[in-house]
């Protein structure tokens, strides 16, 4: 969808901002450009909508060499989101969002209806926020309006330059999550510039790690974190690589342990006997269909009756396929020694800290060797 062929940009003062760059972004793919300040990320992005012209090389969008496309016509196909948002202060949020459709000559009612739909999509109720002016919004809300506005004319391509850079870390993470949900629905081809490797990893289907004017590695988040191509990339990705991998490694059924299980309709006394025999302190409680009901401790079973009368609700749980980081967060939040893993309502097993560590190590090891996680052997801490 976007293709760079040996693109170089040299500014008049002799600075080579981009040096012989070739890469391709597939349709519906989100590629993050990450690297330190001044490495050429913004220059790369601005060449796609011809706000900057390359010195040499060619850029294609949707198969067309953009050098031959009228810049105004080109920009209609490309949404553009920047950190400072650039909303018009004297226009309402709704009118700001409808800017591009209005420029394209849509009827006012149609442009406004579209704008309302997009505000809704980015999590702003158009009835509440549509009539407001930009200064009556928080930074995070303004940023959402910027995204809505860029999407208004339904462009196939979206360029985003540090789109979540101006807000605090909590709001930033929230905006990132919302954006990912939205992207799953709209599937735009996205180039997103960031200097934050965490953001690049969270958002990117693939990541381009920039050195000075060049891409040092262009690969999936897992590969960039697990198998940095150069010493430079390893340095940029940082020493806390394992921690970052928590975000990209998914929980798989093989990672789970099977704790003792009791049924809701089982007599408490029988369940207690079984737990004592297994030397276990608690059991997971399931209904006859295998769905999770909760958990019960051995001491409580002494009260008699059925297990179902004594069950506690299970708050520490995550869905299978969630990132290990989420499971780790739930463990900390609930001060739990394990978290239950569910497939829908069905109980699959529990993830313990030891199993979490094991999954993480296997994942790093698999990437380093270019194999899938299942093929990688596990090395325990003592082997390391
Ligand atoms: N108009 C210009 N004239 C001369 N040099 C420029 C111009 N614009 C950018 N540069 C230089 O080109 C290089 C790349 O700049 P660019 O803005 O693409 O970097 P970046 O990776 O986006 O950085 P940042 O994260 O700080 O925005 C830098 O050395 C910058 O100083």
TrEMBL record:
Keywords: ATP-binding, Nucleotide-binding, Repeat, Transport. Residues 2-237 form the ABC transporter domain. The keyword Transmembrane does not apply. This is Betaine/proline/choline family ABC transporter ATP-binding protein. One of its GO terms (molecular function) is ATP binding. Belongs to the ABC transporter superfamily. It comes from the Bacteria.
């Amino acid at each position: 969808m976007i293709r760079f062929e040996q693109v170089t940009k040299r500014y008049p003062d002799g600075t080579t901002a981009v040096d012989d760059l070739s890469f391709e972004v597939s349709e519906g793919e989100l590629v993050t450009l990450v690297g330190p300040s001044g490495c050429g990320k913004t220059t790369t992005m601005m060449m796609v909508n011809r706000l900057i012209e390359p010195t040499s090389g060619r850029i294609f969008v949707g198969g067309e060499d953009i050098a031959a496309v009228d810049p105004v016509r080109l920009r209609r196909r490309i949404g553009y989101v920047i950190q400072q948002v650039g909303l018009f202060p004297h226009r309402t949020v709704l009118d700001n969002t409808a800017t591009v459709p209005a420029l394209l000559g849509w009827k006012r009612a149609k442009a406004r209806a579209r704008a309302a739909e997009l505000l809704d999509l980015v999590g702003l109720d158009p009835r509440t926020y549509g009539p407001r002016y930009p200064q009556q919004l928080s930074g995070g809300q303004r940023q959402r309006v910027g995204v809505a506005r860029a999407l208004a004319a339904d462009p196939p391509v979206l360029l985003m330059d540090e789109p979540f850079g101006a807000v605090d870390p909590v709001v930033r993470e929230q905006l990132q999550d919302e954006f990912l949900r939205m992207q799953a629905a709209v599937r735009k081809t996205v180039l997103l510039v960031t200097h934050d490797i965490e953001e690049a990893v969270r958002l990117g289907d693939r990541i381009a790690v920039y050195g000075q004017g060049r891409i040092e590695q262009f690969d999936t988040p897992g590969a960039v974190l697990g198998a940095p191509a150069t010493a430079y990339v390893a340095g940029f990705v940082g020493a806390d690589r394992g921690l970052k991998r928590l975000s990209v490694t998914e929980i798989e059924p093989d990672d789970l342990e099977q704790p003792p299980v009791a049924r809701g309709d089982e007599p408490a006394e029988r369940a207690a006997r079984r737990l004592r025999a297994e030397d276990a302190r608690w059991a997971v409680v399931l209904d006859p269909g295998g769905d999770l009901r909760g958990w019960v401790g051995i001491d409580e079973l002494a009260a008699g009756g059925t297990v179902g009368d004594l069950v506690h609700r299970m708050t520490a749980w995550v869905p299978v396929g969630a990132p290990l980081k989420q499971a780790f967060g739930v463990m900390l939040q609930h001060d739990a020694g394990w978290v239950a893993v569910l497939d829908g309502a069905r109980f699959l097993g529990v993830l313990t800290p030891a199993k979490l560590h094991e999954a993480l190590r296997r994942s790093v090891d698999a990437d380093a060797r270019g194999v899938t996680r299942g093929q990688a052997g596990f090395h325990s801490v003592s082997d390391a």
